[in-house]
Design goal:
298 residues; Glucose Permease (Domain IIA); 8-stranded antiparallel beta sheet; two-stranded antiparallel ribbon
Length: 298
């Protein structure tokens, strides 16, 4: 009985080896593919292939195609057609640069359009130009009127405030800067400050290059001439007993009796150095005031 069991196991093992050997032989068995001449039946070309050769060749071609496609996707613009590659850094930077340039161009176009409209108004006589204004300043003023139109709430507050001021006036004559909007006479560096203890009733300003002297408020010229300290002097009488005094080293453009407006040019500097020195004083009811308390010269 034991001998029969061993014989059966040996038989099964041999059958398995034969089957494995037949499968290996089957996939390695080569087939011949021939190309014949139809008329003479002469063999022109042939190839011998097995199933194993066909499988290996197909696998090699598939791997080669995979690497070729991966290379094209990674190193060519074709990657832009795949999800996730469209938001690359260079593209985003270019989009931001283009957006900034478009915004700048739109701002330039708006400024040029406003400038042309303002120029048309000036040429047609709708806006008058004086010595203290220019086309650019008028353009900015007109644009400010359009962009800063008062709302209904602001109008109501303004009317209520004006009514309360008329009923209870609180204006003080001690501080003219509190109710006068003064224009800076000249832009520059203050080299000598107001100091009554040292006998300085005003300030000395070293004017900037290519600058002019302006009137601080509307008024009338009451004196214009050459002073004893080698300066050309001008005194302008303003409202509420306020007087402004200017002393420079070149003549003024206004004479006694002329009306001046706030910001109007009184003289323009034509040279460099100490000739651009401006002595400015502000008087109220016969008492000197500190000009730096009411305006900035920078």
């Amino acid at each position: 009985m034991a001998d029969r069991t061993v014989v059966c196991r040996l038989y099964i093992y041999c059958v398995g080896i034969m089957k494995k050997g037949s499968f290996y032989k089957k996939i390695r068995f080569k087939y011949k593919l021939s190309i014949l001449n139809e008329n003479t039946l002469e063999e022109i070309w042939h190839i011998r292939l097995s199933m194993l050769n066909v499988f290996l060749l197909t696998f090699f071609i598939a791997v080669l195609y995979f690497f070729i496609i991966a290379y094209l996707i990674i190193n060519t613009p074709l990657r832009g057609f795949l999800p996730g590659y469209t938001e690359n850094i260079n593209l985003r930077k270019q989009v931001l640069v283009d957006a900034v340039q478009v915004d700048s161009l739109m701002q330039v176009v708006d400024n040029q359009t406003s400038y042309v409209d303002m120029l048309r108004k000036v040429m047609s006589g709708d806006v008058s130009v004086d010595t203290s204004s220019n086309i650019r300043l008028l353009t900015d003023q007109e644009r400010a009127k359009i962009s800063l139109e008062a709302t209904s709430a602001e109008s109501d507050y303004k009317a209520e405030y004006e009514k309360s001021q008329k009923e209870n006036p609180t204006t003080s004559s001690e501080d003219p800067g509190s109710y006068y909007l003064m224009s800076t006479p000249v832009m520059g560096v203050v080299t000598s400050k107001y100091d009554l203890s040292c006998g300085r009733n005003g300030i000395v300003v070293m004017a900037e290059r290519k600058s002019s002297v302006h009137a601080i408020l509307d008024g009338v010229v009451v004196f214009s001439g050459y002073s004893t300290d080698n300066f050309y002097a001008m005194q302008i009488q303003h409202a509420d007993n306020l007087i402004s005094i200017y002393r420079i080293r070149q003549p003024f453009l206004k004479k006694v009796g002329d009306d001046v407006h706030a910001g109007e040019i009184l003289s323009t500097f034509l040279s460099e150095g100490k000739d651009k020195e401006v002595n400015f004083e502000l008087w109220k009811m016969g008492k000197p005031l500190n000009p730096e308390s009411f305006m900035s010269f920078k």
